[in-house]
Amino acid sequence: MTAFPVPTMPAPPVGVVGLGQLGGSLAAALVAAGREVSGWDVDPAAREAAAARGVRVTGQMDGVVVLAVPLPAMARALEGLDVAPDATVTDLGSVKTPVLADVGTAVGHRYVGGHPMCGTERSGHEATDPGLFAGARWALCLEPGTELPRWLRVAEVALSAGAEVVPTTAAEHDDAVAAVSHVPHLLAAALAAAAGEAGPLALALAAGSFRDGTRVIGSDPGLVTAMVQGNAGPTAAALARVLDQLSRPWPELVAAGHAVRAAAPAGRRPVRVPLERAALLSLGRAGGAVTRRLAAFVEGYVPDVG
Ligand SMILES: NC(=O)c1ccc[n+]([C@@H]2O[C@H](COP(=O)([O-])OP(=O)(O)OC[C@H]3O[C@@H](n4cnc5c(N)ncnc54)[C@H](O)[C@@H]3O)[C@@H](O)[C@H]2O)c1
């Protein structure tokens, strides 16, 4: 029997709009992975820094176009750029429902929303780190109208940067990150503000627990405000759940919180998932992720609770 070689598609080029911490890091990671990368930023210093890392600076983009601009700039980020009519458009925004409404409506079936769960409290191209995505979870939205081949093309970009892809929807993503990211930013702000009121002695004695609990509120206040206000409903609901927890008797609250932290999965169980929306979303809901794309399915894992 003659064996026919399986045709392999060349990896499409990637264009990154916004070359700050996230976009600059992604462009640098993809250059290091051997992908063809173009990039654009309104700031000439960010363009220069990206060019020095091997990014072709241009407003002409094709393949997969990644919007890595602040949330308020997302809706107009493609204006003035020369983007190929069939390019797939994705974004890195920390909130997904409003971007789906803006960019998704403008770009239609070519849009796939994304959010890498990494980054630091620093901003701008000076914070570029090509290793930022290594091992990070990258939420990638599969709405009812999302075209699977485009979703896979964006997933391959995330995998090339070293991330693991978590299939989800914009609404489920926004509920989840309200609990694990947006509320922690508000709690960090409240903790820091209350410690500030406690006075200089308290701030002088602040050590590890204060540092860990307040680290994220060192971020650019504009970015944090845009993030929590852009996800106001789910964030308010998640904050109400935290306030309920705080009204429990303290021994009970401490035991409940400790139990969740202590129950971290013992490991990972490898799985193969068919290239089908419902199966991929089930993987994400189970706490799993995609780590590799194969011809007819993806490989990944689910948490092994032992
Ligand atoms: N910082 C994090 O921890 C983090 C994590 C995950 C996702 N995100 C998301 O990633 C996106 C970028 O965040 P960041 O931390 O990299 O911000 P950043 O401030 O470091 O970088 C943003 C860059 O976008 C550029 N820019 C602004 N408007 C533009 C426009 N219209 N066209 C081209 N360039 C433009 C700025 O000059 C800047 O270089 C945001 O949407 C944010 O929600 C951030």
Describe the model.
- The chain has about 300 residues and is α/β, with parallel strands linked by helices.
- The chain folds into 2 domains: about 15-170, 3-Layer(aba) Sandwich (Rossmann fold), CATH 3.40.50; about 180-245, 6-phosphogluconate dehydrogenase C-terminal fold (Orthogonal Bundle), CATH 1.10.3660.10.
- About 45% of the residues lie in helices and about 20% in strands.
- Helix 3 (about 95-105) links the parallel strand 7 and strand 8 (about 110-115).
- Helix 5 (about 170-200) crosses helix 9 (about 230-245).
- The longest helix is centred in the middle third of the chain and has 29 residues, at about 170-200.
- Nicotinamide-adenine-dinucleotide binds next to helix 1 and strand 8.
Brief write-up:
It is built from eleven helices and 13 strands. It is an alpha/beta fold and 306 residues long.
Distance between the termini: 45 Å
Write the CATH architecture name of the largest domain. 3-Layer(aba) Sandwich
Q: What is the strand tally?
A: 13
Q: What is the percent of helical residues?
A: 40-55%
The average pLDDT value, as a whole number, equals 94
- Domain count: the total is 2
Supply Rg.
21 Å
Please report which band the strand proportion falls in: under 5%, 5-15%, 15-25%, 25-35%, 35-45% or over 45%.
15-25%
Model regions low in confidence, pLDDT < 50 over at least 5 residues: 1-7
Query: What class, by secondary structure content?
Result: alpha/beta
Ligands and ions found: nicotinamide-adenine-dinucleotide
What is the CATH third-level topology name of the largest domain? Rossmann fold
Write down the CATH class of the largest domain: Alpha Beta
Sheet with the most strands, sense and barrel status: 8 strands, mixed
Give the SSE order as H and E letters.
EHEHEEEEEHEEHEHHHHHHEHEE
Give the count of helical stretches.
Answer: 11
User: Strands of the largest sheet, in order across it?
Assistant: 3-2-1-5-7-8-9-10
CATH superfamily of the largest domain, called what?
NAD(P)-binding Rossmann-like Domain
Shape, principal axes of CA atoms: globular
| Quaternary status | single chain
